[in-house]
């Protein structure tokens, strides 16, 4: 039966590829034997074959397909190829668990009012997008030039609409359209840019930049990570890449407090072998090379200590995720400020006033320290901050 008569990725198609391209199977076998049949070695062989067979990452064969192909090859006398496919099939359970974990990052997030507000403004023309299509950014998010209408007789304000894995964010405050275009250009993955990441030329930095400030700084201040890693990985990151960076940094520094960008990149490579196919655009396929390039740019981005500490405090103030552990993380790393003082909680109607609890007092102190880095309550950026999932 010819390739045209077999469905790409089916058991018969896999078996035929194994027979037609023995060199690929030989390389995969060396990956497996060289790694003593470890999970990493078998996953590396699997991703190698999937890539060179030009399979669609969103429609990859599963355990049943690989095992059926292995049985056919064994009966036909191709024992080595059969062993390779059996080893590849054995990685399915781990990949399913990883895919479920990646999906769970966003599945439980409630939609925010800001999501509906931004959708309404896009529908009624208050916010309009430019003629150019969105471009894929270095972090796997999508960036599009936009404009914010300020009312009759006033010129529209340039903006950038950012679509992340958790929702959409409207970045405003650019003095001119060319500043917004410049920031998009710096972040375009297709541009192949190297070196530091640029901040947008706006007064109130968007969440994507705050997240990058934290990670870029921690690449140089990694001594704090072994203790803070669990809380960092619990942050509501808005990109798969950044979530994986935090996890890779924590794992690398837990093994060796002296670990740096090189060790983090090695750990990231392991994690990328387990990335689900649907995340191919976010991290790069098959071995997460786009994520590795992004990590290099983060490592080259100089972030002073004070902005990084304030960014961390702002991120841990997310009302959907600021539990006590994250509050303590922010207190350890936020810039020095006033000591915790008694804070009165505004009582509900017909309720008695009370002294704030420990967690509420910590939140109040963090808010006071980080106010200059937060959107002003009446600003467009504050009204359109996106925390919920995309529709």
Explain what the structure shows:
By secondary structure, the chain is of the alpha+beta class. It is 52% helix and 7% strand. Strand 3 (142-148) and strand 4 form a beta hairpin. Helix 1 (11-20) packs across helix 4 and helix 11 packs across helix 12 (261-272). The longest helix has 16 residues, at 92-107.
Topology:
Layout: H1 11-20, H2 22-34, H3 39-52, H4 63-75, H5 79-89, H6 92-107, H7 113-124, E1 127-129, E2 135-136, E3 142-148, E4 157-163, E5 168-172, H8 177-187, H9 207-218, H10 225-233, H11 240-255, H12 261-272, H13 280-283, H14 289-299, H15 305-316, H16 324-333, E6 344-345, E7 354-355, H17 358-370, H18 380-383
Antiparallel strand pairs: 1-3, 2-3, 3-4, 4-5, 6-7
Helix pairs in contact: 1-4, 2-3, 2-5, 3-5, 4-5, 9-15, 10-11, 11-12, 12-14, 15-16, 15-17, 16-17
Mean pLDDT: 79
Query: What percent of the residues sit in helical stretches (DSSP H or I)?
Result: 40-55%
Q: Which blocks of ≥5 consecutive residues have pLDDT under 50?
A: 319-326, 337-354, 366-391
| Terminal CA distance | 44 Å
Portion of residues in beta strands equals 5-15%
Order of helices and strands: HHHHHHHEEEEEHHHHHHHHHEEHH
Using the CA coordinates, give the radius of gyration.
24 Å
Outline:
The chain has 391 residues and is α+β, with helices and mostly antiparallel strands. Helix content is 52%, strand content 7%.
């Amino acid at each position: 039966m010819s390739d045209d008569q077999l469905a790409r990725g089916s058991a018969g198609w896999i078996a035929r590829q194994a027979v037609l391209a023995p060199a690929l199977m030989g390389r995969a076998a060396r990956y497996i034997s060289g790694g003593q049949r470890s999970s990493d070695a078998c996953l590396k062989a699997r991703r190698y074959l999937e890539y060179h067979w030009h399979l669609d990452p969103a429609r990859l064969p599963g355990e049943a397909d690989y095992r059926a192909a292995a049985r056919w090859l064994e009966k036909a006398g191709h024992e080595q190829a059969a062993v390779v496919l059996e080893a590849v099939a054995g990685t399915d359970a781990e990949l399913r668990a990883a895919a479920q974990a990646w999906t769970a990052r966003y599945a439980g997030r409630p939609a925010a009012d800001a999501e509906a507000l931004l959708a309404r403004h896009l529908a009624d023309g208050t916010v309009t997008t430019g003629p150019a299509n969105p471009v894929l950014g270095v972090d796997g998010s999508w960036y599009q030039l936009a404009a914010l209408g300020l009312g009759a007789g006033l010129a529209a304000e340039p903006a950038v609409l950012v679509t992340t894995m958790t929702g959409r964010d409207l970045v405003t405050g650019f003095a001119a359209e060319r500043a917004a275009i410049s920031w998009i250009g710096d972040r375009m993955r297709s541009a192949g840019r190297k070196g530091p990441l640029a901040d947008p030329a706006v007064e109130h930095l968007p969440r994507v930049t705050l997240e990058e400030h934290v990670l870029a700084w921690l690449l140089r201040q990694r001594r704090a990570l072994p203790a803070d890693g669990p809380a960092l990985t619990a942050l509501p990151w808005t990109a798969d890449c950044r979530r994986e960076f935090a996890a890779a940094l924590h794992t690398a520094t837990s093994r060796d407090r002296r670990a740096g960008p090189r060790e983090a990149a090695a750990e990231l490579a392991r994690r990328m072998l387990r990335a689900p196919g649907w995340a191919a655009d976010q991290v790069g396929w098959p071995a997460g090379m786009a994520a590795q390039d992004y990590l290099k740019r983060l490592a080259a981005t100089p972030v002073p200590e004070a902005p990084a500490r304030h960014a961390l405090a702002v991120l841990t103030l997310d009302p959907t995720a600021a539990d006590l552990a994250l509050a303590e993380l922010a207190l350890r790393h936020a810039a020095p400020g006033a000591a915790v003082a008694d804070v009165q909680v505004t009582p509900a109607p017909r309720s008695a006033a009370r002294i704030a609890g420990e967690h509420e007092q910590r939140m109040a102190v963090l808010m006071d320290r980080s106010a200059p880095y937060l959107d002003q309550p009446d600003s467009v950026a504050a009204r359109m901050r996106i925390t919920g999932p995309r529709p």
